[in-house]
């Protein structure tokens, strides 16, 4: 399909999608695909889950949008569920519409925190340390936070106040902290950057460093959150005793409906007991579309289903099954199977097969999978990412894995 009127920012696969059903997508020619991409880890309950369809239809027929000038009961109900059942630490939630927006939000909270807890000379702290190969989004703020130059090409000058260090390198991180640092921001498992999990030791060290230097621990759960990694939140899957100060979410929370949010801890930031969440008062932040009745009712249905069906535990089990199955094939082109829960990356071995010019190994293998009827997703140049719906049926999981096995065997 030639697109004359859509800005060509995406390299799109040569299929046109018509409809979805659970963990299957259908194109306009009627061809069926096993969907291990799930809208890039977004359609957490698969396509057209009855509870989600019901919530959208009901709420759309009642009230879609009314603005944040009025009380919206669905926001309070959803926020309570997020705080109690997902984050598990007292705090408050702000609703927005995407991951990048949620990250911009927590960067703003960190900047304000830097004013309230300034340097010894009274000037504000403002710098957030993030990590190489991280991905935090495409807005000016979240792009500057992203530790990948390819995302930033020709958009400079970038927003100031970020420094990048190698992931899982506690020593380099400690050296990078200075008097202007106010926060450290990370993904529990780097998703777009190649499915690289934080080690429990590293996460523990980051939390300890934050405590020692009065920094905010900022966790980007946009991809890892809401059961994807086998716990309700990614950091809980890596090192559950760690307590973040700020958490950003999007993707899976809406089950395919655009929704994002960020959570701010109620912990005291000074001797007077000022709560961190209290520093964002009236007028400090906003979003016209953030937390509409429709978005909140939908996310409420999605998160309730994730909690009630214990899909975190299921994601943990199914993810282990993927890992063991793929490792059991013993194929020369597979170097590693990384990740947690249903955020899995197959690390392709360099030089094990030839790649046509202009392709990365991951994009090439992803294209072969698509031709064979399996939708996956590259993560960096050498990693094929498998991010199926959290409720992917066992038989569909097996069907997808058998397509993948055929593709990988044809390479070897
Ligand atoms: C996708 C993603 C984002 C950006 O989310 P958008 O909704 O596309 O703005 C941010 N952080 C992580 C970890 C992501 O995976």
Short description:
The protein is α/β, with parallel strands linked by helices and 412 residues long. The chain is 36% helix and 18% strand. The chain folds into 2 domains: 132 residues, Aspartate Aminotransferase, domain 1; 256 residues, Aspartate Aminotransferase, domain 2.
List the helices and strands and how they pair.
Elements: E1 17-21, E2 24-27, E3 32-35, H1 38-41, H2 50-62, H3 73-87, E4 91-96, H4 99-116, E5 127-131, H5 140-145, H6 149-152, E6 162-165, H7 170-176, E7 181-186, E8 189-190, E9 196-197, H8 200-213, E10 216-220, H9 234-238, E11 246-249, E12 260-265, H10 293-308, H11 311-328, E13 334-340, E14 343-348, H12 361-372, E15 374-375, E16 377-378, E17 383-386, H13 394-411
Parallel strand pairs: 3-15, 5-6, 5-7, 7-10, 10-11
Antiparallel strand pairs: 1-2, 2-3, 4-12, 8-9, 11-12, 13-14, 14-17, 16-17
Helix pairs in contact: 2-10, 3-10, 11-13, 12-13
The structure holds pyridoxal-5'-phosphate (PLP).
Pyridoxal-5'-phosphate (PLP) is lined by residues 98-100, 103, 135-137, 187, 191-192, 220, 222-223, 250-251.
Textual characterization of the structure:
The protein is α/β, with parallel strands linked by helices. The protein has 13 helices and 17 strands. Strands 4-12-11-10-7-5-6 form a seven-stranded mixed sheet, sandwiched between helices. The structure holds pyridoxal-5'-phosphate.
């Amino acid at each position: 399909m030639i697109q004359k009127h859509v800005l060509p920012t995406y390299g799109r696969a040569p299929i046109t999608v018509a409809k979805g059903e659970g963990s299957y997508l259908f194109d306009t020619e009627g061809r069926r695909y096993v969907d291990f991409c799930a809208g890039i880890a977004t359609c957490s309950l698969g396509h057209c889950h009855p509870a989600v369809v019901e919530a959208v239809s009901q709420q759309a027929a009642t009230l879609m949008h009314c603005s944040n000038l009025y009380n919206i009961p669905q926001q309070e109900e959803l926020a309570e569920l997020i705080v109690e059942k997902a984050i598990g630490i007292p705090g408050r939630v702000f609703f927005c519409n995407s991951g990048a927006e949620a990250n911009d939000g927590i960067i703003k909270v960190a900047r304000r925190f830097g004013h309230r807890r300034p340097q010894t000379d009274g000037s504000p702290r403002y710098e957030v340390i993030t990590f190489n190969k991280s991905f935090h989004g495409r807005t000016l703020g979240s792009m500057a936070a992203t530790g990948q130059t390819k995302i930033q090409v020709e958009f400079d000058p970038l927003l100031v106040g970020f420094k990048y260090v190698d992931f899982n390198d506690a020593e380099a991180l400690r050296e990078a902290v200075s008097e202007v640092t106010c926060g450290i921001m990370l993904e529990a498992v780097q998703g777009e950057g190649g499915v690289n999990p934080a080690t429990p030791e590293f996460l523990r060290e980051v939390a300890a460093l934050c405590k020692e230097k009065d920094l905010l621990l900022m966790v980007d759960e946009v991809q890892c959150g809401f059961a994807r990694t086998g716990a309700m939140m990614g950091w809980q899957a890596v090192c559950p005793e760690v307590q973040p100060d700020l958490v950003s979410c999007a993707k899976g929370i809406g089950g395919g409906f655009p929704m994002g949010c960020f959570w701010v801890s109620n912990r005291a930031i000074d001797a007077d007991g000022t709560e961190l969440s209290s520093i964002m008062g009236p007028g400090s932040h906003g979003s016209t579309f953030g937390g509409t009745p429709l978005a909140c009712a939908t996310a409420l249905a999605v998160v309730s289903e994730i909690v009630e069906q214990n899909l975190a535990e299921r994601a943990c089990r199914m993810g282990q099954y993927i890992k063991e199955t793929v490792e059991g094939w013993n194929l020369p082109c597979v170097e590693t199977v990384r990740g947690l829960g249903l955020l899995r990356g197959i690390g392709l071995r360099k030089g094990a097969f030839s790649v046509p010019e202009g392709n990365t190994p991951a994009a090439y293998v992803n294209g072969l999978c698509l031709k064979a009827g399996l939708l996956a997703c590259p993560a960096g140049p050498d990693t094929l990412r498998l991010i199926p719906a959290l409720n992917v049926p066992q038989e569909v999981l097996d069907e997808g894995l058998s397509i993948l096995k055929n593709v990988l065997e044809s390479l070897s």
